[in-house]
Amino acid sequence: MKKTTGVGFYFSCVAAVLAVVAAGLYSQVMYKQTNVYIFLIGAAVVAVIFTVLHKVTNSADFTGILPVIIAPLIAFGAVYGAALMVNQIGYVIAGLDGIDTIMSFIIFEVVCCVALLVALISAFLSQTKEV
Question: Averaged over 111-130, what is the pLDDT?
Fold first, then answer.
């Protein structure tokens, strides 16, 4: 029996692609930190490395750890992205600014949450299957 990638591996790759999309959306946010880009792009780089390793070694034994690495990276990116925007959210709630000042931040956080949800779902799906 040969082991190959399962549906969980593909979910992890989708989460990594969503992390790259979130990194692109983060460039539109008012206040930025470089750490967010590092975490989100890092999730995609890890997925690419695991995909290349799978193709080179023809083994799917190591893919089970992929969502365990990707999910925290996406979560760190979302949390660090929100850290600088707390004051701006307070200004919007207090009525000192309009919602349009944080709309790009809201869209970024929604994409990050979807990516994190997909990564967490992939952790519970089969990363390998035998054919």
Answer: 88
**Calpha distance 128→131 (Å, rounded):** 10
Number of domains in the chain: 1
Verdict on whether the full-model pTM lies above 0.85: yes
Q: Is residue 18 part of a domain?
A: yes
The domain in which residue 97 lies consists of 3-123
pLDDT in tens, 79-112: 999 998 999 999 999 999 899 989 999 999 999 9
User: Residues near 41 by Cβ (< 8 Å), separated by ≥ 6?
Assistant: 19, 20, 23
Residue 3: DSSP 8-state: E
